[in-house]
Write a structure and sequence with these properties.
The complex is a heterodimer of chains A (255) and B (394).
Chain A lengths: L2 H11 L4 E7 L6 H10 L5 E4 L10 H12 L4 H9 L7 E4 L2 H7 L1 H11 L3 E3 L9 H8 L4 E3 L1 E2 L5 H10 L4 E4 L14 H11 L4 E4 L5 H10 L2 E4 L1 H8 L4 H15 L1
Parallel strand pairs in A: 1-2, 1-9, 2-3, 3-4, 4-5, 6-7, 7-8, 8-9
Chain B lengths: L15 E2 L2 E2 L8 H15 L2 H13 L7 E3 L1 H7 L2 E6 L9 H14 L4 E6 L3 H13 L2 E7 H6 L1 H9 L3 E5 L6 H15 L3 E3 L10 H9 L1 H12 L7 E6 L3 H7 L8 E7 L4 H4 L1 E5 L2 E5 L24 H9 L2 E6 L4 H12 L5 H13 L9 E6 L7 H9 L3
Parallel strand pairs in B: 4-14, 5-6, 5-8, 6-7, 9-10, 9-14, 10-13
Antiparallel strand pairs in B: 1-2, 3-4, 11-12
Classes of the chains: A alpha/beta (255), B alpha/beta (394).
The structure holds pyridoxal-5'-phosphate.
């Protein structure tokens, strides 16, 4: 079992709901300060976006953050170097479209992530059917690959995906790209489907916008992922202190 | 290359052509891709479906399109050129073949709406046309830059009852229109089919679109036999995503003909690309040293695409087909030459294939060779752009 999974299973045992904020690497020069602030605010793990020119699964907020980050010259190497300088006591999960790793080299990417302190990776356009080369590349390093289950995933696929996922299963709350939303969508149904297939921790993401929604999602799931809601405020000029406060408001709603 | 290799047959169970193809999409779209694969397999072996597809192509789209010997251009270049006249198909390009098939399939799957991306607007117009015929709702995603370059086609789509959404993300051209269509598809897969316009995207699209375009090559092979030309020495087509090329190549893949795809120099995925993953497929992609996708730049919106269909990447890797490039600067001349000598104004896309023939006749193409040229579309959509280029004197 990889460290990410050990850590997140242990967290669940303590009865704490996981809070996983998402940040786009390189979006501002002080982006790692936001990561640290999120941990101070009560994040259980942090998801770090690797910018890609063509983010098919992302809505306007994360698209904008990605383009800004690329304009700032962010690369896999540059963000890994910054992450390597952090000392945090929570796991870090990279979120990247497959082409970035494919181009860098799968084994080289996996090693680079591991050496920089990442514990896992989410690759939203890497279907389970195509994932073998990437999983092989991660086999000998301590990087867990997290897979998504969608509201449209039929139950036999849920079983297959749950069996491949490491660390946790990402339950997509809705049929949509990342963004902000006014309700929880299909989250309860998707979480229930995942629960029938596995005892891995199951976190809800996509559209979680308010602490109230996070609390509601955590009634069925083991944790929540909050992306666009945080990224929007950073694009609008939020300071690390603002981020800490916002993350903490989610933390309080979950506890 | 083994003697008994069969080219352009079915991909493997993962949708791969050699090392290219596959299915790289978010989980939310996987069930829709699997459903589509099943529906296509089922329909494509159903005689009734095939009969309906063929009758719509005949009665509505005007097939078969003729083969025209290009006598004066042939004489000038010293080679024998036969044009397959997809420009005479309804809506002005080969795009109609694919959308007739995909809209019939949409109805068969019980869906009531189609969405599509478009570059030059030809695929958008074709989709809107086929959707109108079947009473399907239709939304077209088009890069904002392209809506300006191809204003008339935007209006055409609207006349046909479609909604055109200008895409303002990324480079605001074809690749971003594909991203946006994919993002939209995630939200509506239940009742909506994504009518992809070329031999690209996740499995089964590259294979399905090639099959629906292969009527070009099969017709042409029969027509060339009928006029006693037989197998031509060369089969030449322009390549954006590669659908007209795949369609015409399919009729000659296992013949002695040399297959040549002509890319725009500013959108040459075989010429300047490397293996990558974009828009659901592993193929040759133009990208920078960090794996960020590069923007294509071509005089023709329809060739402004940084990738190429995975089957072409495989045909290139296996050596069965060759991919060459021509630059923007020779396209207007090629368009004028064909217009003046043959009375055919080609689409800027198709003019790339003409330009290659003009450049290479007597060089790469030995004098006396016979050439099948796929005239993928007519130039009506481009005349305003050509006029402004000629007026500005560049
Ligand atoms: C007339 C014409 N030819 C060619 C193309 C390029 O597409 P493909 O390479 O799929 O044939 C287009 C695309 O818009 C087109 O309109």
């Amino acid at each position: 079992m990889k460290s990410l999974e050990r850590h997140l299973r242990a967290l669940r045992k303590t009865g704490v709901k996981a809070l996983v904020p998402y940040f786009m690497a390189g979006v501002t020069t002080d982006w790692v300060r936001h990561v640290e602030a999120a941990v101070a605010g009560g994040a259980s793990a942090v998801e770090i976006g690797v910018p890609f020119s063509d983010p098919m699964m992302d809505g306007v907020v994360i698209q904008e953050a990605g383009l800004r980050s690329l304009a700032n010259g962010t690369t896999l190497d540059s963000l890994c170097a910054e992450v390597a300088g952090l000392t945090l006591d929570v796991p870090l999960v990279a979120m990247s479209y497959y082409n970035v790793f494919h181009h860098y080299g799968l084994a080289a990417s996996a090693r680079r992530l591991a050496d920089s302190g990442f514990d896992g990776a989410i690759v939203p356009d890497l279907a389970p059917e195509e994932a073998e080369p990437w999983r092989d590349a991660c086999h000998s390093v301590d990087v867990a690959t997290v897979f998504l289950v969608a509201p449209s995933t039929p139950s036999e696929r849920v079983t297959r995906i749950a069996a491949m996922s490491e660390g946790f299963v990402y339950a997509a709350a809705r049929m949509a790209v990342t963004g902000r939303a006014s309700d929880l969508g299909a989250a309860p149904r998707v979480v229930a489907a995942v629960r029938r297939a596995t005892d891995l921790p199951t976190y809800v993401g996509i559209g979680i916008t308010t602490p109230e929604q996070a609390r509601e999602a955590a009634q069925v799931a083991d944790g929540v992922i909050v992306g666009s809601a945080l990224v929007r405020t950073i694009l609008d000029g939020a300071s690390p202190a603002d981020t800490e406060e916002l993350v903490n408001s989610f933390r309080r709603a979950l506890d | 290359m083994a003697e008994d290799t069969v080219y352009m047959s079915t991909p493997d169970e993962f949708g791969r052509f050699g090392e290219f193809g596959g299915r790289f999409v978010p989980e939310a779209l996987m069930p829709a891709c699997l459903e589509l694969e099943d529906a296509f397999l089922d329909a494509w072996s159903d005689r009734e479906f095939l009969a309906e597809y063929q009758s719509v192509l005949a009665d509505f789209a005007g097939r078969p399109t003729p083969i025209t010997p290009l006598a004066r251009l042939s004489e000038r270049l010293g080679i024998s050129i036969y044009a397959k006249r997809e420009d005479l198909a309804h809506t002005g390009s080969h795009k109609i073949n694919n959308v007739v098939g995909q809209t019939l399939l949409t109805v068969r799957m019980g869906k009531s709406r189609v969405i599509a991306e478009t570059g030059a607007g030809q695929h958008g117009v074709a989709t809107a046309t086929a959707a109108a015929r079947l009473g399907l709702a239709c939304t077209i995603f088009m890069g904002e830059v392209d809506t300006k370059r191809q204003e008339l086609n935007v209006f055409r789509m609207e006349l046909l009852g479609a909604t055109v959404v200008p895409v303002t993300s990324g480079s605001r051209t074809l690749k971003d229109a594909v991203n946006e269509a994919m993002r939209e598809w995630v939200t509506c897969v239940e009742d909506t089919h994504y009518c992809l316009g070329s031999v690209m995207g996740p499995h089964p699209f590259p294979w399905m679109v090639r099959e629906m375009q292969s009527i070009i090559g099969h017709e042409a092979a029969r027509q060339l036999r009928d006029i006693r030309v037989g197998t031509p020495d060369y089969v030449v087509a322009c390549v954006g995503g590669g659908s007209n090329a795949a369609g015409v190549f399919a009729g000659f893949a296992n013949s002695s003909a040399q297959l040549v795809g002509v890319e725009a120099a500013g959108g040459a995925a075989v010429g300047h690309g490397s293996p990558g993953v974009l828009h659901g497929m592993r193929s040759l992609i133009m990208q920078d040293e960090f794996g960020q996708i590069e923007e294509a730049h071509s005089i023709s919106a329809g060739l402004d695409y940084p990738g190429i269909g995975p089957e072409h990447a495989h045909l290139a890797a296996s050596g069965r087909a060759r991919y060459v490039e021509v630059g923007d600067e020779v396209i207007i001349d090629a368009l004028r030459t064909l217009s003046e000598l043959e009375g055919i104004i080609p689409a800027l896309e198709s003019a790339h294939a003409v330009a290659w023939l003009i450049r290479e006749a007597g060089r790469e193409i030995p004098l006396g060779s016979s050439v099948l040229l796929n005239m993928s579309g007519r130039g009506d959509k481009d005349v305003a752009q050509v006029l402004s280029i000629l007026r500005s004197g560049s």
